[in-house]
Specification:
Elements: H1 14-17, H2 25-32, E1 50-51, E2 56-57, E3 62-63, E4 68-69, E5 74-75, E6 80-81, E7 89-92, E8 97-101, H3 105-114, H4 121-125, H5 132-144, H6 158-163
Parallel strand pairs: 1-4, 2-5, 3-6, 5-7
Antiparallel strand pairs: 7-8
């Protein structure tokens, strides 16, 4: 299935590109009288969306294929993001526009340089994240003194994730 209309094709109808391996694919082609072995290859033009660390994407926001959302960005609900979003930008609207930045340029540079998300939550929480410049002062000192080290969590095993459900408490 194509993700976006593709003007250079003769047709964008799924009849040309239906995949017999998909549920209902053979029936769809049969109903149209199309030989499933004569179908064209699916012309996928899907560019993945890249989302940085500590990004907040509001409810019902739409992201165009291939956009990059920088670290720390805030995307308001129902925003239509059609362009790349720089780190720590605040984006809203249709089409999405940068309405502000969360922090001054020098603070953004320090946040990106420190890459604070690499450290365990409890270790950085003790540094007082409510005042960002002071937090960065303390984090940079802790990094220089090797008082904090990068957090490397263990791998999640599928059964462990599937076995735990936040919905259990609603039974």
């Amino acid at each position: 299935m194509m993700t976006e209309p593709q003007a250079e094709l003769l047709s964008n109808s799924p009849a040309w590109y239906a995949d017999p391996a998909l549920p209902g694919g053979l029936e769809f082609l049969d109903d149209l009288g199309v030989n499933p072995h004569a179908r064209l290859p699916v012309p996928l033009k899907v560019e993945p969306v890249s989302v940085g660390h500590d990004v907040r994407i509001g409810e019902a926001a739409l992201l165009k294929c291939g956009v990059c959302i920088g670290d720390g960005a805030l995307i308001f609900p129902r925003t239509v993001v059609t362009n790349n979003v720089p780190p720590y930008a605040i984006v809203a609207g249709n089409p999405g526009e940068i309405i502000d930045f969360r922090f001054p340029e020098r603070i953004v540079e320090r946040l990106l340089e420190a890459r604070w998300w690499r450290y365990h939550f409890h270790a950085i929480q003790e540094l007082g994240p409510e005042n960002v410049p002071a937090f960065l002062d303390r984090l940079e000192l802790a990094i220089a003194d090797r008082a904090v080290r990068e957090f490397t969590p263990g791998a999640l095993i599928g059964a462990a994730v599937i076995g735990s459900s936040c919905c259990d408490r609603y039974d």
